[in-house]
């Protein structure tokens, strides 16, 4: 391996334990487990334990997922030191507003059974409420109840609006991000403003039967899912694929022993169609 290659690889996530550094200096794993639509009880407990057994150290949940208690139980039963873990949860739309956000946070903290939340996010940009919600997140951060604060599903104009008059800039924006929705404008704005982008639904809910992805999978001896997750990381985007099956959880994490070339990255970039699987943050009704 040449010096140039070594230097280039050192800039990329090369191990499941590798972390990005947020604007406030907090370290956040590049890779984690998302638990959207994972049922409370044994299903989420088993999935989180499986992830932790296989080296994952970041778990992403939300109040509306209804599984915070199971996530907390799995963490306690896993035997993994709490200081090694990075736990994210989110305030739901119905709880937005200053006082109600503070109350919702305490409920999430109680259900998780954690004194400290690593990252707390505004789940969606609810019109007329998200700036007051952000003010509550700033208080939680200043009070030391959370290590980092951010947003989810915010477009550039939402970020600009919430930053206008804010004391603290969002440290993370968790958004729908995948080859069909590559978000170049948002990526550029986030990089310019020191906001870490994070991908939800990185695997397009299994819609991976694409000739380009299949060709690259064959080239690298990987699955199309592994190609997409590697593409995320090489774009500097934190990724949190969901699975409840241990073999899939293990497979999703097997992406640190290869690298996509510049040509590979460009081929995947060219798949962008600005097509969403989820709701548009400018037009949602939940």
TrEMBL record:
> Which controlled-vocabulary keywords does the entry list?
NADP, Oxidoreductase
Location of the NADP-dependent oxidoreductase domain: 32-272
Record: residues binding substrate: 123
Site positions (Lowers pKa of active site Tyr) are: 90
Task: List, alphabetically, the InterPro entries matched.
Answer: AKR (IPR020471), AKR5G (IPR044500), Aldo/ket_reductase_CS (IPR018170), NAD(P)_OxRdtase_dom_sf (IPR036812), NADP_OxRdtase_dom (IPR023210)
Q: Which SUPFAM superfamilies match?
A: NAD(P)-linked oxidoreductase
Any idea which residues are catalytic in this one? 65 (proton donor)
Concerning Pfam families, the annotation shows: Aldo_ket_red
Q: Name one GO molecular function term.
A: oxidoreductase activity, acting on the CH-OH group of donors, NAD or NADP as acceptor
Task: State the similarity comment.
Answer: Belongs to the aldo/keto reductase family.
Q: Which PANTHER family match?
A: 2,5-DIKETO-D-GLUCONIC ACID REDUCTASE, NADP-DEPENDENT OXIDOREDUCTASE DOMAIN-CONTAINING PROTEIN
From the Swiss-Prot or TrEMBL record, give the protein name.
Answer: Aldo/keto reductase
Give the classification, highest ranks: Bacteria, Bacillati, Bacillota, Bacilli, Bacillales
